[in-house]
UniProtKB/TrEMBL annotation:
Coiled coil: none annotated. It comes from Histidinibacterium lentulum. InterPro entries: AB_hydrolase_1, AB_hydrolase_fold, AB_hydrolase_sf. The keyword Hydrolase applies. Residues 22-250 form the AB hydrolase-1 domain. This is Alpha/beta fold hydrolase. Keywords: Hydrolase. GO terms for cellular component: membrane. One of its GO terms (molecular function) is hydrolase activity. It comes from the Bacteria. The keyword Cytoplasm does not apply.
Length: 259
């Protein structure tokens, strides 16, 4: 995969298709390949760019310890790629970062798509994040893989799709433990809630109703707080609809982008 330098960091990315750019930002629990099942169809009518965050794939640090720093990182990536205004889609962690881009670099975003994310975590939701952070720091990525899969997918899907789970475990196992822990800490500190009304972009919020990582109420808070946002709820789907329900994901995303 090609790489580009952004503020001292090496950023690995995939670039497919041509036309108006759509940038896809991945979740904490996966690398950019989490979009592989939908990149082809998305790229039939646009240019689709999928970077890895620092610590995933061949992407490296340095990176700051707050979500705002990751938003600045994405803006720097857009500069390095000579991209102007883009449509921006973020899943999970990528959705928190996408909000930071929309808030702090508003002119870089046209349409915004937030998939299984939220404005921030309530105190109860921060407990497992702190647990992941501590465990990966002490024991490495292998120690958090089981928990990560349970946070990504409903138990029935895990049982029904062992090959997908093996694929996702293998991809996440290669993440840098220190940078994974850094991202966990950034999530614990985040609260975009008071700023949601500042997001003026056309926004689609999508959520799987079986999401155990960013429960549906967090997405509903986004849809309520962002003026004019549209909400799509996917029954039976977990944290990554682009993997578990690619057809429903594509239907919602393409209708929004092409509308």
């Amino acid at each position: 995969m090609p790489t580009v330098s952004v503020n001292g960091s090496t950023v690995e990315y995939q670039d497919a298709g041509s036309g108006k750019p759509l940038v896809l930002l991945h979740t904490l629990l996966a690398d950019r390949t989490v979009y592989d099942r939908v990149t082809g169809p998305l790229a039939e009518g646009r240019r689709v760019i999928t970077p890895n965050f620092p610590g995933y794939g061949a992407s490296t640090g340095p990176i700051g310890s707050e979500i705002a720093a990751y938003g600045d990182f994405v803006a720097g990536f857009l500069d390095a790629m000579d991209l102007g205004t883009v449509d921006l889609l973020g899943n999970g962690y990528g959705g928190f970062v996408a909000q930071a881009v929309a808030l702090d670099h508003a002119a870089r975003v046209d349409r915004l798509i937030l998939v299984d994310t939220g404005p921030g975590f309530p105190e109860a939701g921060k407990v497992p994040l702190r647990g992941l952070q501590a465990k990966v720091t002490a024991e490495g990525m292998s120690a958090v893989l089981d928990a990560a899969m349970l946070r990504m997918f409903p138990p029935a899907y895990i049982e029904a799709a062992p090959e997908v789970i093996a694929e996702r475990r293998e991809a996440l196992s290669k993440a840098d433990p220190a940078l994974f822990a850094n991202a966990c800490g950034a999530l614990v500190a985040l609260d975009h809630g008071p700023r949601l009304a500042q997001i003026g972009h056309p926004t689609l919020v999508m959520v799987g109703l079986e999401d155990q990582t960013t429960p549906p109420d967090l997405s509903r808070a986004l849809a309520t707080g962002i003026p004019g946002a549209r909400l799509i709820e996917l029954p039976g789907v977990g944290h990554c609809p682009q993997v578990q329900a690619p057809e429903a994901f594509l239907e919602g995303v393409l209708e929004f982008l092409d509308g």
